[in-house]
Amino acid sequence: MWLRKMFGKTVLCAMLGASLLAGAATPARADRADKCRRDIHKAEENLEKAVRKHGERSRQAQQRRHQLEEVRERCRGYWGNRDRDHDHDHDRR
After folding, report:
1. Cα–Cα distance, 48 to 50 (Å, whole number)
2. Is the pLDDT of residue 90 over 70?
3. Are 68 and 89 in contact (CB under 8 A)?
4. Fewer Cβ close by (within 10 Å): the C or N end of the chain?
5. What are phi and psi of 77, to 5 degrees?
6. Alpha-carbon distance 26 to 38, whole Å?
7. d(CA 44, CA 19)
8. Helices (H), the chain
């Protein structure tokens, strides 16, 4: 009988601990995903400015494309399917 009570308490504590860990990890992941969205948006804006100012095939535009790809690579996995946004800058070619 006491073994059943001990097992029940152990399971309850394990479930409580797991739910606390899951809840604590979610906001940090959401913050990183938001930061990635902002960083990607900023990199896209920088690319657009470089294209307007220096031209589509300029050295500056190529550098901004490279920076955009670096940001996207760094952020890979923080938020869902990015395939539709991934080639956003290539639509203008």
Report:
1. 5
2. no
3. yes
4. N
5. 95, -15
6. 19
7. 38
8. 2-54, 59-75, 83-86
Smallest CA-to-CA distance from 70 within 31, 28, 39 is with 39
Q: How far apart are CA 26 and CA 48, in angstroms?
A: 33
- Prediction pTM value: 0.55
The letter for the amino acid at 16 is: L
Q: What is the pLDDT of residues 3-53, one digit of tens each?
A: 666 667 787 778 777 777 666 655 666 788 889 999 999 999 999 999 999
CB atoms under 10 Å from CB of 21, counted, come to: 10
Q: Where are the domains of the chain?
A: 2-92
Residue 37 in tokens: 């969205």
CA distances from 77 to 18, 33, 81, 92, 93 (A): 23, 9, 9, 26, 27
Token reading at 45? 């804006």
